[in-house]
Specification:
Blueprint (H helix, E strand, L loop, with lengths): L2 H10 E4 L5 E3 L1 H11 L6 H8 L3 H21 L35 E7 L5 E8 H13 L9
Antiparallel strand pairs: 1-2, 3-4
Helix pairs in contact: 1-2, 2-4, 3-4
Length: 151
């Protein structure tokens, strides 16, 4: 057991209720749940090393995930943070006709957009403008998508 995990184990249980159930430190609980999310982490091994039931730790992980999902749904502006801003420039070559200008003399940029979701669904949009692509990306960011629904 690492020193970090030993320290976490010491801080995790702060008391016992009259019926024997544990009272846990919220900060230590959050650290343990975060440790479960690391690559290669085993919930059952971490629970065993911390002296708690694996089902209890699994419940904490599930509750943490549900709280995060509710927070994203409650504040749709946070879904955009998952995307990286990327400047789009239109390159005009002799074989490419000039792009039509809008009323404010800006160029309309058309693009092809393809999105693959973890459950296997593929969106393939051709010749969409930047504004339409933004709407699609924002909508896809709000869609709940489970790998378990993959056919």
């Amino acid at each position: 057991m690492s020193d970090e995990l030993e320290d976490l184990t010491r801080r995790l249980v702060v008391g016992r209720k009259s019926d024997g159930r544990g009272v846990y430190d919220e900060a230590a609980k959050a650290e343990l749940v975060a440790a479960c999310g690391r690559p290669g982490a085993s919930v059952s091994r971490l629970a065993r090393e911390c002296g708690i039931n694996a089902n209890q730790l699994s419940r904490w992980v599930r509750e943490h995930s549900e709280r995060r999902q509710r927070a994203v749904v409650a504040s749709p502006g946070t879904a955009r943070e998952a995307f990286i801003a990327m400047p789009i420039t239109a390159a005009l070559t002799p074989t490419t006709p000039p792009l039509p200008a809008t009323d404010d003399s800006r160029h309309v940029v058309r693009m092809n957009l393809q999105a693959r979701l973890p459950n296997g669904v593929v969106f393939d949009l051709r010749e969409v403008d930047v504004q339409q692509a933004g709407v699609v990306i924002e909508a896809l960011g709000r869609v709940r998508c489970s790998v378990s629904t993959k056919a």
